[in-house]
Write the structure tokens for this entry.
Amino acid sequence: MSRRTRQIIVTSALPYANGSIHIGHLLEYIQTDIWVRFQKLCGHDVTYVCGDDAHGTPIMLKAREAGITPEAHIAKYLAEHQADFARFGVNFDNFFTTHSDLNRDLSYLIYNQIKEKHPDYLVRRPVEQLYDPKENMFLPDRFITGTCPNCKTPDQYGDSCEACGKTFDPTDLIDPRSVISGATPVLKESEHIFFRLEPSRAALQQLFNSGFVDAAVRNKLWEWFEKEKVAEDGTRTKVAQELRDWDITRDPPFFGFPIPGEPGKFLYNWFDAPIGYLASLGKYLGFDAAQTAQYWNDALEVHHFIGKDIQYFHAMFWPAILAAAGLRVPTRLAIHGFLTVNGRKMSKRDGTFIKASTFARHMDPQWLRYYFATKLGPQPDDVDLSFEDFRARVDGELVGKLANLISRAAPILTRLLEGKLGVPAMDAVGLLEECRAAAGPIEDAYEGRNFAAVTRQICALADKANKYVEDQAPWALVKKDAEEARGVLTAALEAGRILTIYLKPILPEFAARVERCLAIGPLEWKHVQDSMPPHTIAPFERLVDRIDPKKVAAMIEESTEGGKKLETSSQQLEASSQKPESSSQNMEANKPAAAPAPGAVAADPRATNSEPLAPTCTIDQFMAVDLRVGRVVTAETLTASDKLMKIQIDAGPLGQRTILAGIKQAYTPERLVGRLVIFCANLAPRKMKFGTSEGMILASGPGGPDVFVLSPDNGAQPGQRVH
Ligand SMILES: [Zn+2]
């Protein structure tokens, strides 16, 4: 099979140098790495580059808080990120940083070329922004908190309300405060430079129509260009929607690149971040800025793997900036969805906000690579990591089917037939033909990022091969006819070898073990059509282990935010590291999907086992319990108790109550204050060691870190009775 060698540049999104890599990030890097490994296995010329996004206000402030320079701060994360990626087999050709001379040179080259070729694309406009008069700095939205103007929930960030979901401008907040100093921000004006997107409309539309994104994604993204207009008679038509200009300026103090020729102005880090793709490539090739730009322009294919949270930026601004600077636009965007765990958004409270390093400490990283592969399709659908399903996939498929084939046949051959391969048995010719014939469909599935289809096809073949071994029973056959048994085992191992080639992009470590065990050289895609010569195989080594449920539990426990109180400002800084400070541009309308699909939560039998159903009660008995809505006013952890928190509740007309609740291991005070809860209001007051408790807050769960406080929907008022 001879094919044209493709020359491909591949990137994953740049992680922000302000926090650790977690399993949500890994979804993208593993997806990209699998695709890259597949292309390389096929013999294509692929360069896979990435690096840390190392600029911006959150980094500057977090470094200041830690008492170190931003350079020292980002160096720490660069080393940590590289170690984490290596643990999961994510094999970049180069991992760089946006805080580098080469990235600065490239950013200036691109900025200056836009200015020269399309001066009308850059416009100056005064911007009114909230300013911290104590710290003398403009505040990004995430550094302002206040009360939601819509539902009046306190402590909401300056871009949207977590309680009611409404988005707004930070100036709309009631009683705004600077997260940094606590001061009341003031409005201040500053001149900014904007990149105009509207002149690129036609070029972007043409790009969208030329395979830049998958067809289904294209139709969704097209909504950015149009809005619906409803006429008086009710008829709806689509009309063009003006594309918003993008503010590419930041005022000092700022950690980033000064804008050439604009004293006191910095490039917004989202401008130089994607240019970091080119910088990483140039660094890898040993090029300067001009040489890198030239190489980029000449590249046959450029593929960006990104999450759907940054698709607007990568589909609109990035190609528009490149084209305006006279550079090639990317070939394709590969967009994936978000990761949920057990059907829910990852959360520190649930112990599902799992760092890459924590996962690798308790589990085999190959398991996660395999599991993600079984879940990833070509569409940007969210992927759920359900630990029940995870175990079923790893134990049932990876260990029980894929590894089983070789780990069963190889030791028998070694033990009973001196480990010497022969000629595959005649009755296995059909099986081996079928295995080889799958190369085409599996290739297509890899190319289209349909890794779920890849693993499905490989598992189906493994089922057939395992059944063949089962039916032939070589362990019994060897006593009657040794050469016939050798033929069966050789056929089984040949099938195992072919399937290992198919699996190699997903499981490079597994493949390396099979190569050692079968005593064969590094497998490539073209080797599917070969047959193993009759040589002696090596002693068997374990390919992959089953999941120990105790380790899953230990990992979740380690990831659970315990009673320990985190420093508020560092928590907020971390929150801002999860989310690019892009909201003032409103670049991303869609936020990580928090709500799982109905029925997505796998039923956990432990949820009901320990507490059998109580005897039937009458409506009168139920009505005797007076349940009310309350709002948590204050919450403090009692240091003398390892379970209790002292919570002050506002129950509207019923006044305030003090309740001692055993939820210290599951909640921090910050998570509770301002939140609506349900509590039993007519429970007899109970004297406890730490004071009197005047009620009970309703929660589910067995206790310890597994406590889940109930809340009413929005709109409920303190004091209302629950019926
Ligand atoms: Zn609200």
